[in-house]
Design goal:
The complex is a heterodimer of chains A (131) and B (57). With 131 residues, chain A is mainly α. Helices cover 63% and strands 0% of the residues of chain A. In chain A, helix 1 packs antiparallel against helix 6, helix 3 (36-55) runs antiparallel to helix 6 and helix 4 (68-78) packs across helix 6 (102-127). By secondary structure, chain B is mainly α. In chain B, 81% of the residues lie in helices and 0% in strands. Classes of the chains: A mainly alpha (131), B mainly alpha (57).
Amino acid sequence: MRATTADRAQPAATAYLICAAAWLLPGLGHFWLGRRQKGATFLVALTLMFTFGLWLEGALFPFQVSQPLVALGALADIGIGLPYIIARTIGAGTGRVVAITYEYGNTFVIVAGLLNMLIVLDAFDIAKGRK
Amino acid sequence: MTSHFGLMVIFALFVSVVFATLMRDEPREQLTFGARLFGGFVGAGTLIGWLLYPLPI
């Protein structure tokens, strides 16, 4: 499956815009580059994974410089983009530490964010004509 | 939904889908690679869990 838009390298500004779009909504960067099947898969899989993590009572960590591991968790959470912003806005992701699924929920939410960061890098590589 | 194994399987499914889509271009290759990844994740998780079982942790 070769893309049409991605066959030639994009200008630097466009490549960074694609990265921003890919971060904001999982898969949007790949949609932009003409790789619709990949974009749709990322959108569905990562949004579901993030939502599932919240449903398992995982937390969206706050930025706390005094606790570096919590700050790193917060950074990973933000990697998912718009779903994170929506969850924060509606007050989801408060987390319930005593829930048996709390740590599982955290893992789902954190890994969804980290996977989206990987997808942003992939979109950047495609935009630069490396893939 | 509190089964450790069930949650591991769901986690492995999500990660396999994303990695297979990321690393392969053709849908058929994605399916094959994703299935192998999923089997590897679940198999390794089960094996490591079984090996850790006797440890008092």
